[in-house]
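ok trying this again, last paste got cut off
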Amino acid sequence: MNRSASAVWHGTGRDGKGTLTTQSGVLDGTSYSFTTRFEDEKGTNPEELIAAAHAGCFTMALAFALQSKGLTPTELKTEAVVSLEKDGAGFKVSKSALTLSAHVPGISAEDFAEVAKGAKEGCPISKLLNAEITLDASLV
């Protein structure tokens, strides 16, 4: 399975502007720029997209892991915060912090912690990231 996205950029790094388009069309000429990445201008940026991908991937991996144990979650809600830090002359994604709130009838706190940890380590986006990955999981 392959998925694709493309970027088009015009101008310099600081003053230029770009667009992102995904194979599915969910992003279709979506704006991004220096100011959407390093300031607060409306638009997206690579780190926000990585955070969305990590939150979505982890949450789906957890749903599958719970299903394999015969459990059906009522709700799994995950936030991912991706940290971009200075790295020499450039930058690097240094961390993705996952925060999970879950409603899973019939699971003990110990089993929940184990399954959530396994989903964090096993989700394909976690495996892709060369960064510290943390998980703060709470069973509601």
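PB: full thing came through this time. The chain has two domains: 5-38, 46-139.
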